[in-house]
Write a structure and sequence with these properties.
The protein is 37% helix and 18% strand. It contains 12 helices and 12 strands. The chain has helices at residues 14-24, 44-57, 81-84, 106-116, 131-139, 169-173, 175-182, 193-196, 203-211, 215-235, 245-252, 299-310; strands spanning 4-10, 30-37, 65-67, 122-126, 147-153, 188-191, 200-201, 240-241, 257-262, 264-266, 277-279, 291-297. α5 (131-139) links the parallel β4 and β5. It is globular.
Length: 313
């Protein structure tokens, strides 16, 4: 089979970085048409810089990177330096990027690519707030039916929230954008906290990254060393969850994941539950399903895939 054509929409972030590395290390299954950046974990200037750093770390400086929206659709930007550090990639010491940034807005690139590529051939892979995707859908409604699938990291149900008691960070930052994307009619697959909190980088798993002995393997281990301190203190877990690589791993080995095709709605008005992904896991609402909401993964298989592919770089 030909590799799946994807656009990675991202706000790196250490876990975003690992997701990008996994995609760039997997050309048999994935063709990265471009990377679009959005404000989220850190402001846009840093997420764009970080995407360039990661592509150079992967030895892929010819990857096209497009800067996108620098704020949510109708809210002030909320960032997560408390998790990812002031740069978003705190942990390893990585060189300043030298590869060029494309001279086109991310939203224009998304729209143009979906119009130019055959209908149903491009998958969108959002790893951060959904501002770029929603803006593209708003400006060009004709692209909705052309999307093969949207595979995103965001939301939660049984694991509730990680930025508020009810909301996961990516959805909370721009809930209006998330509501628009979940209502666009394209096939959607969701990697919520329910799955990503099972993708824990324990010490043996991180030692395996470091033992690769490559710049990418060592950098992944150092990234995890940095941001796991926050998650281990917060959750009392034995390691940090690698959220965003679940998206890339699903594209390569979907059999690692299991979930349900259900209705998912986004709360945009309540002060208590703003940004909540209201996932009708038990099918009690009568609302039609609009997303495949993952609930479990084979963690050992996930880390075997991740370590093996990172070792290629």
């Amino acid at each position: 089979m030909a590799p799946r054509k994807i656009i990675i929409d991202t706000d790196p972030g250490q876990d975003d970085a690992v997701a990008i590395l996994l995609a760039l290390a997997s050309p048999e299954e994935i063709e990265v048409l471009g990377i679009t950046t959005v404000a989220g974990n850190v402001p846009l200037e840093l997420t764009t810089k970080n995407a360039r750093i990661v592509c150079e770390l992967a030895g892929k400086p010819d990857t096209r990177i497009f800067a996108g929206c620098d704020r949510p659709l109708g809210r002030d930007l909320v960032t997560a330096e408390h998790v990812h550090g002031k740069t978003g990639l705190d942990g390893p010491t990585l060189p300043e990027p030298t590869m060029p940034l494309q001279d086109r807005h991310a939203v224009d690139f998304i729209i143009d690519t979906l119009r130019e590529e055959p209908e149903g051939s491009v998958t969108l892979c959002p790893l951060g707030p959904l501002t770029n995707i929603a803006t593209a859908l708003d400006r060009a409604p004709d692209i909705g039916p052309r999307i093969k699938e949207i595979v995103l990291m965001g939301g939660a149900y049984f694991e509730v929230g990680n930025i508020t008691p009810a909301a996961e960070f990516n959805i909370y930052v721009d809930p209006e954008a998330a509501k628009q994307v979940f209502g666009c009619g394209a096939p959607i697959t969701v990697m919520p906290l329910d799955v990503t909190h099972k993708a824990l980088v324990t010490k043996p798993r991180n030692d395996a990254f470091r033992a690769l002995g490559t710049p990418a393997g060592i950098a992944v281990a150092e990234m995890t060393d940095f941001f796991e301190r926050f998650d281990k203190e917060k959750y009392g877990s034995e390691g940090a969850p690698l959220h965003d690589p679940c998206v890339t791993a699903y594209l390569i080995k979907p059999e690692l994941f299991s979930g349900r095709h259900i209705n998912v709605e986004i709360e945009i008005t309540s002060e208590l539950t703003l940004g909540m992904t209201v996932a009708d896991w038990w099918g009690v609402s009568g609302r039609p399903p609009n997303a495949t909401f993952m609930g479990d993964l084979d963690a050992d298989g996930f880390f075997a895939l991740l370590t093996g592919r990172i070792g290629r770089l």
